[in-house]
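Review box. Two proteins, two foldings.
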Amino acid sequence: MNKRVLKSAVFSPAPFLRSFKSFHRFFATANDTLEGLVADQHISSAIDAPQSSPSQHFSAQDFVFLRESFSDAKVADPESGKCSTDAFSIINAMKNYNDGLGEESQKFLRKFREKLDANLVDDVLRNVQIPELGLKFFMWAGRQIGYSHSVAVYDALLELLGGGKNDKVNDSFLSLIKKDDSEVLGRLLNVLIRKCCRTGMWNLALEELGRLKDLGYKPSRVTYNALIRVFLEAYKLDTALLLHREMINLGFKMDMHILSCFVHFLCKVGKWRDALNMIEKEGVKPDTFMYTKMIMGLCEASLFEEAMEFLNRMRVDSCYPNVVTYRILLCGCLNKGKLGRCKRILSMMIAEGCYPSPKIFCSLVHAYCKSGDHSYAYKLFKKMVDCGCKPGYVVYNILIGSICGNEEFPSQDMLELAEKAYDEMLDAGIALNRVNVGNFARCLCGAEKYEKAYNIIREMAGNGFIPEAGTYNKVIGSLCDASKIDKALLLFREMKKNGIVPNVYTYSIMIDRFCKVGLIQQARCWFDEMMRDGCTPNVVTYTAIIHAYLKARKISDANEVFEMMLAQGCPPNVVMFTALIDGYSKAGDIDKACMIYEKMRGNVDVHDVDIYFRICDDGNKEPNVVTYGALVDGLCKVHRVKEARNILDAMSSSGCEPNHIVYDALIDGFCKAGKLDEAQEVFAKMSECGYIPNVYTYSSLIDRLFKDKRLDLALKVLAKMLENSCAPNVIIYTEMVDGLCKVGKTDEAYRLMVMMEEKGCNPNVVTYTAMIDGFGKTGKLDKSRELFQEMITKGCAPNYITYRVLINHCCSVGRLDEAYHLLEEMKQTYWPHHLTNYHKVVEGFSKEFLLSLQLVDEMGKNDSAPLIPVYKVLIDSFQKAGRLEMALQLHKEFSSLSPSSSTDKKVYSSLIASLSASHKVDKAFELYADIIEKGEVPEFGSIVELIKGLIKDNRWEDALILSESVCHMV
C-alpha cells in the first residue's frame, strides 16, 4: 500500500472505509456492526504491512484477530458523530503504535500541534477509553506551546481516570501529573472537588478537599464557592461557616449568587442578624436579588415581622423591591395562612405597580374561600382586572364551588355572591364544571330560586359546557327534593330532547320523587318506559314504586312489580324489606309488616309473606336500624306501643344500637297513647345513650302535656329545651297555642303567637286555625274574623279546615249570612276537589280536632272532599233560625255532593219536620217523595211529622189517608 493511501486512511478514513464494506459478508454476525470494525482493520494493515503490490489477496480468516479484539472494547467511530476525525486518528495512532506515547506516537502527534485546542483534547480524552494513554496525551498536550487546559478538559480527564464515577482518582495517576507539572495537579484537584459539588456528593468533596490540602495545595475561590453551595444544599451550616471563615482568612470573597444563597439559608433558620453581619464582612452592598432571597428565607421561617422590616430596609438602602420580591413575600404569607398580611402586601405591591401572577391570584382566591372570607375572595376578581388579568375558569369555579360545595346550604348573602359571580361567568362566556353545576343548582333550590336552578344547564351549555346524564341527575334531584316536580319534569324532557339518554339513576330519581308526592301513575309510566328502552331498573327503582303502591293500598300492583323484579334477577335487599314494612304500616296493615320483620329475623313458621323471600341472600335481609325504626313508627301509629317497646329491646339484644329517630318515634307513640310516664322512661334512656333531645322529641312531650292540661310541667320542658339551645319550631308553638286555647287562655295564646313571629318563626295555617277556634269558643267571633283577615294579608292562605271552624262559630252565634258567604268563598278558592288533596289539607291537625269537626268519618266514607259536615251545620242553623228557603237551597247543593249526601235521612227528616211545623207541608211532601224516588225508606218520624203538619193545616182527610198508608206499611 503506498503512502498516499496510508495518509488517506489516517487523516480521512471515511471514504477508505467504504471501499472495504464488501468484506463484511465474510465475518459479520448478528451481534457485530460494520462501523468501526473495517476501519480499524484497514488502518492496522496500512501501518504494519510492508509496502507491497495492491493486488495482494485477503481472506476472512486474516481478520479473525480483529473480531476478537472488538469483543473486548469498542473503538470510537467518526461516523457515529461522537468523535471528530482528528480525534479518531490520534486515538487509533496512539493505540496502534503501542509505545506508551513514545517517540513514534509523539512524532505522529506533532502533525496536530496547529490544530491542538481544548475541544480536540477533550474529544480525545472522552473517547480514548484507556486511562494511562489518555493521561499521557493530557500531559503531552499541556506541554505544547500556545495551549492550556480548560475546565472541560480537566473534567474529561477526571471522567477517564474514574473521578466521574463516584470513585476516587488513583494516587498513582496524581503522582504522574505532579511529576510532570505540580501546578496542573492543583488545578485538577480543584476541578475534582467542584465536580463532586456539582453532583451533590458533599462527603466525597470533603475527602477530596482533605487530599488537596495533604498534597500541599489550596482550594481556589471558585472551589470554596462550590463547596459552600453544596454544604448549604445539604443543610450543613456549620461546615459552610467554617469554609467561609477559611475563605476570609485567605482573602477570598464569595460570589454574589453564593452569598445570596448563604444569607437566604441563615434567614431561613432564623439567623438573619448573622446574615447581615456576613454581608458586612464581605464588604458588598445588597442588591434587590439578595434582599429578595433574605425575605424568602424569613417567610419560610415564618418571621413575617422581620420580612416586612427587611422590605423597609431595602428602601432605606435605595434598593426597591420588584415584582419577584413582592410575589415571594405574598406567597410566603399565603403558604403560612397569614391572610391578613396578604391583604396588606397585595395593596402595597399593586400601588407600586407590581402585579401578582394569575396563578398567585388563584391561590389567593382559594385561600380566602377556604378561610370562609368569600367576600374578599370576590373582591380579588376586581383586583385581577385592575392588574390586567381577567378572572377565568379556575377562580370562578373555586369561588362558587367553595360557597355551594358544602353539605349545609350557604347563607342568603353568600348565595347572592355566588349568583353574582355566576352572572359574570355567563357574560364572560365561562362555564362551571360538572360538580359545581349540580351543587349550585342544589343551593338555588334550597333558597327557592327554582327558575334559575332550572335554567343552569341551558345557560352553561351556551358557554361550551357539555352536560351529561350525571349533571342532569343532580339538578333534577335538587328540584325534586324541593318538591318542584313540574320543573324537574320539564328538565327531564329537555334532557331527552337534547339527545342525552336517561340512565337508571335518572329514572330512579323521577320515579322515587313522583311516588313520594302520590303521582304513582306517572311514575309507573316512566318505569314501563325504561323497561321498554332497555334501561334495567335496579333495586332502588323497584323499592320506590313498590313502596308507593303499598302506601296507596294497591297491594296487587306492588306484588306485580315485585315479581318483575325477581324475574329480572334483582334480589331484594334490606332496603327493600324496610320499604315493605314501612309501606304496609302506612297502608294500615301493621300485622303484615310484623310478619315481614319476623321473616327477616329467620322465623320459618311465618308463611303469609313467602312471596317476598323466594330469592334472598341471608346477608341482605338482616334488619338494620332503619328497619327497626319503620316498624316502631308503624306500631306506635296504631297505638301498639308495648310491642314497639319490645322492638327497642330486641334491637339492643341483637347489637343494633337505636338511633335518634327510633327513640323519637317511640316517645311520640307513648305520648299520643297518653302514657307519659313510659315516654319519660324512653326519654331518660335516650339521654343515657348520648342522644341529645331535638325539637321533635320536645314537641311530642309538650303536646301531650298540654293535652293533659299539665301546663306547669309543659313550661318546665320548654325551659329545658331552651336551656339546651333548642329553639321551638312552628309545630311546638302551634301545640302551645292550641293547648292554651283549649283551657280558655286565649289572651296568653295570642301573645305567644305574636312572640313566635317576633322570634322569626311565622305561624302556619294550623297555628292560625287553632287561634281562630280558640277565640270562637270563648265568644270572641269578631277577633276570629280579624285574625282570619290577618292571615290572608300576611300570605298564609286559609284551608278547608280554617273555613270549617269559622263557619261553625258563625252558625253558633246566629251569624248565618256570614257563614254562607264563607262557604261560597271557600268553594271558589279553597275547595279540595279530590280526597288525595284533602289529605294534604288536614296534615298538621290533631285527630281529636278533626273528630270534633266530624271530619274523620266523612273522609273514610266519601271519595269527594268532606264538605258534608259544613252543609249539615248550615242547614241545621238556617232551620233553627226559621229561614227554611235558604235551608232548602243549601240542601239542594248538599244533595249534589255525593250519592251518600243525597240520601242522608237525618237531614231529610230534620227538614221535613221544620217545614211541617212551619205550615209548609207541601214542601215537606216534596222532600218525602224525593227520598222515596231514590229508593230509600223514610224514617217513621218523618211520616209522623207530615201527619202533624197536615193536621196543623186542617187537612184532616190527607192526614187520615197518610195514617192508613202507614198502617198498611206496618
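Next protein.
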Amino acid sequence: MASAPKRPKAAAGSSARGKGSADPLSGFLAWCGRAGVELSPKVRLSREGAVAGYGMLAAEELEAGEVLFTIPRAALLSQHTSSIQALLQEAQESLQSQSGWVPLLLALLHEYTASNSHWQPYFSLWEDFRSLDHPMFWPEEERGRLLQGTGIPEAVDKDLANIHLEYTSIILPFMESHPNVFDPKLHTLELYKQLVAFVMAYSFQEPLEEEDEDEKGPNPPMMVPVADILNHVANHNANLEYSPQCLRMVTTQPVGKGQEIFNTYGQMANWQLLHMYGFAEPYPSNTNDTADIQMVTVRKAALQRAKSEAQQQLVSEQWDFLCQLEMVGEEGAFVLGWDEVLTEEELSTTLKVLCMSEEEFKEYKEQDGWEDDSEEEENSTLSNEALSRLKTPCKKLLYDSVLLTLESYRSDLKAEQDLLNNKEAYEKLSRREQQALHVRYGQKRILHQLLELVH
C-alpha cells in the first residue's frame, strides 16, 4: 500500500469565498516569488505523483543535504506578521490560554475572511476547510464505533471542550471589543473549530534552544507556506531547519527523480496522526507506532488478582504511594513501542510495587522509594528482551493488564487481519473506516507482541 499523506487537501478550483483563481497553485507560486521564497529548480509542487493532495516532487536527482526551498521569516503567517499584529500585541495578556494558540487563531480568523488579505493566495490552496477530516468532525457515534479503545475519542472530547471554552471566554469578548475587525456572525464557533484543525494539521512549532528548554514554554505555532505542502511519513527524506533570518527544507537522504519528498512531524504514533492530522500510516509503515495501557487498568488487574480484603487494601496503599512518587495518575498511560516500553521507569516501578508483599512494601516505603542505583537501573530498562526476563508476578500482572486493554476494543485482531488481507473488502471501506482500522490494528499488534513476551 502507498504511504498515507499528511492530510488531504481540497480539490483545485475557485475559492468558496470567491477569492481563488482558476489555478490556485500558480497563484500561490507567484505569491511565493513576491514574498521572497526561493524554490529550488530541482523540485516541483504538484498533485500528480503525490500520495494525495498537493506534494513536493523531485524534478531531478537530489543528494542528501540539498536545500529544497528557503522561506524568509516575513513570509511566515503568525500573530507577529498578521495585519492585526498590533491589536494582538496590545491584548496579549487577555489572550492567554491553555493551548497558547489563541493569538494565531485570531490572526487566521481575520486573514482568512478579509477580502484584501496579503495571505489570500496561500489560503486559496484550500477552497474551504471541509476537506479536513479529523475525528473531531466525525459524528460522535461513528467516532466511538470506529475508535473505541484507541484513546482518540477521549482526546477529541477534551479538544472540543477546550475549543468551546476558548471561543466563548476569550475569542468572543475580544471580537466584541473590536467590531470594526471581527463579526461573530462571520467568525463563528464552527469556523474557529475548523481553524483549530487547520493549525493542528499544518502549523509548525519552532524548537526551543537547548538552554531555554527548562525555562521557557513551547514557542507558539505558526503557518509555514510551502513547508506545509510536503506530506508526512515516518521514513521521511527531508527536514525543516530554522535560522534567525529564514527557514530551509533540506534533504536528509538521496531522492530519485520523480519521487515524492516527505517531511516529518517527529515520532508520531498512528493515533496521534489521526487525531491531529486526520490520517494514519498503513501498517506496517509507521515504525513510530505505539499502544497504551491505561495506568488505572494495571491497578484494576492488581485488584482483580487480590484474593482477600487485606490484599485489596494493600494494592490501594501501593497505588497511593505510586501516586505520591508521581509514577502513576488517574488519567496517565504506559506507552509501548515496537521495541521497548517508552515509559519504562513508570511501568517497571509500578509493576514492582504492585507485586510486593506487605513486608517488602513497608521496607520500600521506609526508604521513600529509593533503592540501590544498580538495581534501579536494571529494573528501569524495559526493552523487549528485558520484558521477557521480568519476574513471574510482574509478568502475570502485565499479561492481565494487556488482556483488559484488548477488551476495550470492539473487534479482535484476527477480524482486522482478515479485513486487511482481503483487498476487495478493504477497498469497500470508507476512508474513515480504513484510517481507524490502521490505528486499531497497529495498537493491537503491539499489545499481542507484548502478550507473547510475558506469557
